[in-house]
From TrEMBL:
One of its GO terms (biological process) is cytochrome complex assembly. InterPro entries: AAA+_ATPase, ABC_transporter-like_ATP-bd, ABC_transporter-like_CS, ABC_transptr_haem_export_CcmA, P-loop_NTPase. Residues 4-208 form the ABC transporter domain. Keywords: ATP-binding, Cytochrome c-type biogenesis, Membrane, Nucleotide-binding, Translocase, Transport. This is ATP binding protein of heme exporter A. PROSITE patterns: ABC_TRANSPORTER_1 (PS00211), ABC_TRANSPORTER_2 (PS50893). It comes from the Bacteria. GO terms for molecular function: ATP binding; ATP hydrolysis activity; transmembrane transporter activity.
């Protein structure tokens, strides 16, 4: 089943064209790895794919919905993990995830949230303000969203391995493999090599002046 379609997508930034004529067709169980130099437009492309930025040209559809016209419908089964972690420094890990689950109509409770945080190595830190956690621990709090949103069928991940140790990178790669084998689809960028035994497609963005 097709879950993401991009046709002739172009992006401009500060009067410079980052890319043009990008065409993507992603189906259930497929992994697309987006590569390119810094400044080539990887993050800009991912933001366009999830409806957070407008393309200079082209069309994007997720789960049969036009990203620009029906953002809610397009995002119901989409999970975007970007550079900004989307967590409040003033709230605890539990409070952050409880609020996020409420915003996304995810039926959960603190027991399930604590179990997820424990799986990510945050036992004992559930009720500490995020501002008092290390960068890696804060990243784990944000990553817990991948564990909690079980109805997602598309993950769009922008540098998901940033600030993670080797153990957690391996755990996230394992989680990705399980998601793909269950029929999920992933679009991602990373400066690190992906160590996952799963077929993938590659889209390379060239830096243009």
């Amino acid at each position: 089943m097709r879950v993401l379609l991009a046709q002739q997508v172009a992006c401009e930034k500060s009067d410079r064209q980052l890319f043009s004529d990008i065409n993507i067709e992603l189906h259930s169980g497929q992994l697309l790895y987006v590569t390119g130099e810094n400044g080539a437009g990887k993050t800009s492309l991912l933001r366009i794919l999830v409806g957070l930025s407008q393309p200079a040209a082209g069309y994007v559809e997720i789960n049969g919905h036009d990203c620009q016209k029906m953002v809610h419908g397009a995002s119901e089964r989409l999970l975007y993990f970007g550079h900004k972690q989307g967590i409040s420094q003033l709230l605890t890990a539990t409070e952050n995830l409880r609020f996020w689950c409420q915003q996304h109509a995810i039926d959960t409770n603190d027991t399930a949230i604590h179990a997820t945080l424990a799986e990510l190595g945050l036992t004992g830190l559930e009720d500490i303000a995020v501002k008092n956690l290390s960068a890696g621990q804060q990243r784990r709090v944000a990553l817990a969203k991948l564990w909690l949103k079980t109805d997602a069928n598309v993950w769009v991940l922008d540098e998901p391995f940033t600030a993670l140790d080797v153990h957690l990178i391996a755990e996230l790669e394992s989680k990705m493999a399980v998601f793909l084998n269950a029929g999920g689809a992933i679009v991602m960028t990373s400066h690190q090599a992906l160590n996952i035994d799963y077929p993938m497609s590659n889209l390379h963005l060239e830096y243009s002046w």
